[in-house]
Specification:
mainly alpha, 9 helices, about 0% strand
Amino acid sequence: MRAQRQARAVRLGPRSLTALILVSAVGVAAFCWPFIAPPTSQLSAHAQDAPWLFAGLLVLLVAVVAAAISESGLGPKAVAMLGVLAATGAALRPIGAGTAGIEPMFFLMVLSGRVLGPGFGFVLGSVTMFASALLTGGVGPWLPFQMLAMGWFAMGAGLLPGPDRLRGRGELVMLAGYGFLAAFAYGTVMNMAGWPFMSALASNVAFDPQATVPANLARFLAYCLATSLGWDLGRAVVTVVLTLTLGPAVLRALRRATRRAAFETPVTFDAPTAVKPPT
């Protein structure tokens, strides 16, 4: 029996793919500049201004969303699903308030990206983080970094192999493994966003503009171990547990909603039937 190809709510075309590559490239530079810029670079002299300069990522993120919507013909059904999932994720985030890494929204991003594809996953991750920031009052220069990191997180689930064939326990184990590793990756990436702006005089694990790249890398690793390892581990474990326990039901619900929405089915109208005049 031939497997049925799974529908995608947003397919990445040339314009949206170009915008996504652009914002990802700028995002990598925004996160990794302490390891790219040499100690003599003038960029280090403006380290305190960087969060506000890189906050311009919001414009690029909006451009990605707009490009994806305009090019893929995102219909009202997909927009409605995006709104429902983003609202659900935003509501899940404050449940644990980040305590000990208890953040149930991550498992929903993994499953949604898996079913609805990388394009929808990126849009959903960034929109969900933006909505949750408005809900919790967490708006600040760190928000663009959170939106981009969550977009990557959900998009990665959509890039996993076997979206049309792999089902059952094998798929759940793969998604749980991805969620475990990606939860650590998300925490590490967000550490990179805030770590350079600690005062070097406050701690021996803070970023030192005058130090070499290997020295700063050692400081960063020590900073992650000292400050966020427990939180990242809690986030990873919660994501794995929720994926394995609630994953089957959520995956079925998402796939059923995707089939009923028929995102990729064009809207057609039947021609009117000619009425034969009475004889």
